[in-house]
Amino acid sequence: MIQNSSKYTQLIKAEAKRLGFISCGISRAEFLEEDAPRLENWLKNNMNGEMAYMENHFDKRLDPTLLVPDSKSVISLLLNYFPSETQTSESYKISKYAYGVDYHFIIKDKLKQLMEFISEEIGEVNGRAFVDSAPVLDKAWAAKSGLGWIGKHSNLLTKQVGSFYFIAELILDLDLEYDNPVTDHCGSCNACIDACPTNAIVADKVVDGSKCISYFTIELKNEIPISEKGKFEDWMFGCDICQDVCPWNRFSKSHNEPLFNPNPELLSMTKKDWEEITEEVFQKIFQKSAVKRTKFSGLQRNIKFLKD
């Protein structure tokens, strides 16, 4: 079985690379003991704001065997989304991850192909694919499987590539070879903490979600509190400040996934263009984009908040 585990692991990692994932790491499917008190405290201090769904499935978030019975391995995968071009400096900004087609569609398709490959090459394997839409602590699993360490801004960081990537998982009832976590390389750097305009990074590796610009511009359904006026630095959907200032992101290289490329109009639009945007233009530019989460009315609310 050990011999097979090694062979299967190599097969899966080679196929993940072929499918375009920049990294693939594997950890044993077991209860995330260290993360349990962290998650409990985070929820107890209401750092999830109005994201009530974060309180659901507490046990499942920490125990993969509750998601996939008899699971043995968690395969973590990273997919780069760093763009070759960014918006004009005269624009309201959207997070780089939302430039192109919604990543859920793209990654789910790749995971489906990986699952089919595993069935063909290895045989009947039970498992499920996850792309941040289920109760899975993806950053914790990626760190456990050696793909990087959790930075002070609570994002996964990798020496060679920084942090502009998506994380996805396959949880399988298959024994594989497990990777080891890597060491933390943030050191005494506090660039992300110092740069956050809403002081959302409240402790090392702890982000108060209810203070984050991404939360205000995407998750919050009510009006943005007046106390946050003037703090958003022109971010109208999401926020990349803590990643943009991170020294490790100087190693970011642009992705090679055509579906992540933005609509050309997106890159050239000015603040005035955004202020005058119609629903028709919104639907055209963000046809299959994650920006649709906030809807046209939500984006208008955000732009008005930045403008007034």
Automatic annotation (TrEMBL):
Domain 4Fe-4S ferredoxin-type span(s) in chain numbering: 174-206
InterPro entries: 4Fe4S_Fe-S-bd, 4Fe4S_Fe_S_CS, QueG, QueG_DUF1730
UniProt KW Membrane keyword: no
Catalytic activity: epoxyqueuosine(34) in tRNA + AH2 = queuosine(34) in tRNA + A + H2O
Residues annotated for tRNA binding in this entry: K221
Location (main, coarse): cytoplasm
Cofactor note: Binds 2 [4Fe-4S] clusters per monomer.
UniProt: cob(II)alamin binding residues: R61, D132, L156, I167, S214, C239, D240
GO biological process, one term: tRNA queuosine(34) biosynthetic process
Keywords from the named record: 4Fe-4S, Cobalamin, Cobalt, Cytoplasm, Iron, Iron-sulfur, Metal-binding, Oxidoreductase, Queuosine biosynthesis, tRNA processing
Enzyme Commission designation: 1.17.99.6
Membrane spanning stretches: none
GO molecular function annotation: 4 iron, 4 sulfur cluster binding; cobalamin binding; epoxyqueuosine reductase activity; metal ion binding
Location of the protein in the cell: Cytoplasm
One Gene Ontology cellular component annotation held by this UniProt entry: cytoplasm
Enzyme kind, highest EC tier: oxidoreductase
Keyword match 4Fe-4S: yes
Cofactor(s) in the UniProt record: [4Fe-4S] cluster; cob(II)alamin
Residues bound to [4Fe-4S] cluster 1: C186, C189, C192, C246
Binding, [4Fe-4S] cluster 2: C196, C212, C239, C242
PANTHER family (UniProt xref): EPOXYQUEUOSINE REDUCTASE
Quaternary structure annotation from Swiss-Prot or TrEMBL: Monomer.
Protein's job: Catalyzes the conversion of epoxyqueuosine (oQ) to queuosine (Q), which is a hypermodified base found in the wobble positions of tRNA(Asp), tRNA(Asn), tRNA(His) and tRNA(Tyr).
Family, similarity comment: Belongs to the QueG family.
Protein name listed in UniProt: Epoxyqueuosine reductase
Protein species of origin: Aequorivita sublithincola (strain DSM 14238 / LMG 21431 / ACAM 643 / 9-3)
Gene it is expressed from: queG
